[in-house]
Amino acid sequence: MWLLTTKRIVGVHGEQELVASGVFIAASITDGIDGYLARKRGQITTMGMLLDPLADKLMIAAAYITLVQINPHIVPAWMAVIIIGREFLVSGLRSIAASEGFTIEASDLGKSKMVVQIVSVVMAVLAHRWDEWQFGSFVFPVDLIAHFAIWFMVVLSLASAVDYFYGFWSKIDRQVSKKRRRRFVLSRRKKREISSEQQSRAN
């Protein structure tokens, strides 16, 4: 956020956007490596389970909110709301699932979202400075790819949110059904015990 909004770094050749893109890519990659190493080495802690998703959500929210400020023709506010809202929706569902005693695994859509997320943010940042890059006769359409990546990110966010929501409710329904069956079995057992107790008293 500071790199993109500060007036202390005013590069005439896009240094500000290039450095900001590099920082975001590094943060995204190290976030993934951190989680992988923690799972592989069995070093998952309660503090890590709290801070890792929180840091991830803050990074995404900061990136898209800043893009709304500096490049609204690429990232309008409503798009940022959908993308950020999806992140907090999934976090809420996972918290409820954890309180019910089960977990929601990351779906294939959720995993691919990270790649699209990096591409969309980086391209939107670069599009703040360039419409296109020209390498001899080859033209790389920065602005066009940024628009496409952001729209694709919005569609993917909505699709993955529905996917997570469906997975959550299907597990919740199974949990509720199990609890109902357990209560029914327990209530029948209790009735039998009461009935047998009454019979023994009568005898």
Briefly, what is this?
This protein is mainly alpha-helical and about 200 residues long. It has helices at about 1-5, 15-40, 45-70, 75-100, 110-125, 140-200; strands at about 135, 140.
Whole-number total of structural domains: 1
CATH topology: Four Helix Bundle (Hemerythrin (Met), subunit A)
Total strands: 2
Characterize the main sheet.
2 strands, antiparallel
Number of DSSP helices? 6
Order of helices and strands: HHHHHEEH
CATH architecture call: Up-down Bundle
Percent helix: over 70%
Given helix and strand content, the structural type is mainly alpha
Q: Strand-residue fraction?
A: under 5%
Q: Main sheet: which strands, in order across?
A: 1-2
Q: Determine the N-to-C terminus distance.
A: 82 Å
Please state the average pLDDT score.
78
What is the 3D form? elongated
Unreliably modeled segments: none
Instruction: Describe the oligomeric state of these chains in a short phrase.
Output: single chain
CATH uppermost class = Mainly Alpha
Rg (C-alpha, Å): 25 Å
Task: Describe what this molecule looks like in 3D.
- The structure is a single chain.
- The termini are far apart.
- The mean pLDDT is 78.
- Helix content is 79%, strand content 3%.
- It has a single domain (2-202), classed as Four Helix Bundle (Hemerythrin (Met), subunit A) (Up-down Bundle).
- The chain has helices spanning 2-5, 15-41, 46-70, 77-99, 108-127, 142-202; strands at residues 133-135, 138-140.
- The protein contains six helices and two strands; from the N terminus they run H-H-H-H-H-E-E-H.
- It is elongated and about 95 Å long.
- The protein is mainly α.
- Helix 3 (46-70) runs parallel beside helix 5 (108-127) and helix 5 runs antiparallel to helix 6 (142-202).
